[in-house]
Design a protein that fits this description.
This protein is α+β, with helices and mostly antiparallel strands. Strand 3 and strand 4 form a beta hairpin. Helix 2 packs antiparallel against helix 3 and helix 3 runs antiparallel to helix 4. The protein is flat.
C-alpha cells in the first residue's frame, strides 16, 4: 500500500533547516529538492515553495518504510517545466532529488544565463559576508585589548590581571556571537538569517 505524505508546517521546516530534526521519527521523512539548471521555482500542487533548493519534512505512516510525495513541479525562467513524484524512506533526513530541465524544451540559453546570474549574486553575498566577518574579528580583537587596558588611568585600583570585567564580558559575548556567525554562514545559510539566529549586529 502506497501512502501519500503531508508537508509539515513552517515551524518544522525551520527546525529541519537549522538541524533540529537531524534524527527523524519513523513517521517523518525529509527531502531536499534541487534543480538543474539551478534557479527553478518549485511547487507542490498549487502551493509555491520558492526557488530551489528547498527542504521539506513530511509526515506519513510509521508502519511503512517508504512513501511517495505529492507531485512536485519545477518551472524555469523560460517556462520549461517538469513534474515528478518522489519516493522517500521514512525516518531519514538526508534524502534529495534533482529535477532536471527537459532537454527538448526551448529557452535553454535563458535558463543557463539566469543560473549564472544567481551564482554571481551568491558569490558577491559570500564576499560581502566574509568582509563583514573580517571587520568584526578586528573589532573583537580590539575589544579584548581595550578590556586589558580599560582600568589603566581610570582612577580606580586595577584587579590582579589588570582587566576591566565589564569590557571583558562584552568582548567574550561578541566573540561567541561571531563564532556562531562563522558556523552559520559556513553552512550556507543567508547572512541576514544568521544575524537573527546569532543575535549579531555589525
Amino acid at each position: 500500500m502506497v501512502q501519500r505524505l503531508k508537508v509539515t508546517t513552517a515551524c518544522c521546516i525551520f527546525l529541519s533547516l537549522i538541524g533540529g530534526c537531524s534524527t527523524l521519527p519513523r513517521n517523518e521523512a525529509a527531502l531536499t529538492v534541487y534543480t538543474q539548471p539551478p534557479g527553478a521555482m518549485l511547487y507542490e500542487g498549487d502551493t509555491a515553495w520558492g526557488m530551489a533548493p528547498q527542504k521539506r519534512t513530511y509526515f506519513g505512516n510509521a508502519n511503512l518504510t517508504t512513501a511517495r510525495t505529492n507531485p512536485i513541479t519545477a518551472i524555469w525562467a523560460s517556462g520549461a517545466q517538469i513534474t515528478k513524484t518522489v519516493t522517500v524512506t521514512m525516518g531519514r533526513s538526508d534524502q534529495y532529488v534533482v529535477l532536471s530541465r527537459p532537454p527538448d524544451a526551448p529557452g535553454l540559453d535563458k535558463d543557463l544565463a539566469y543560473a549564472a546570474q544567481l551564482r554571481q549574486q551568491q558569490i558577491e553575498r559570500q564576499q560581502a559576508a566574509a568582509e563583514q566577518q573580517a571587520a568584526s574579528q578586528r573589532q573583537t580583537a580590539a575589544d579584548f585589548q581595550a578590556a586589558g587596558n580599560g582600568l589603566q588611568g581610570a582612577g580606580s585600583a586595577p584587579n590582579m590581571f589588570n582587566i576591566d570585567p565589564l569590557a571583558y564580558e562584552k568582548a567574550q559575548l561578541r566573540a561567541r556571537k561571531l563564532a556562531c556567525m562563522n558556523d552559520c554562514v559556513g553552512k550556507g545559510y543567508m547572512y541576514q538569517y544568521c544575524q537573527s539566529r546569532c543575535g549579531y549586529q555589525n
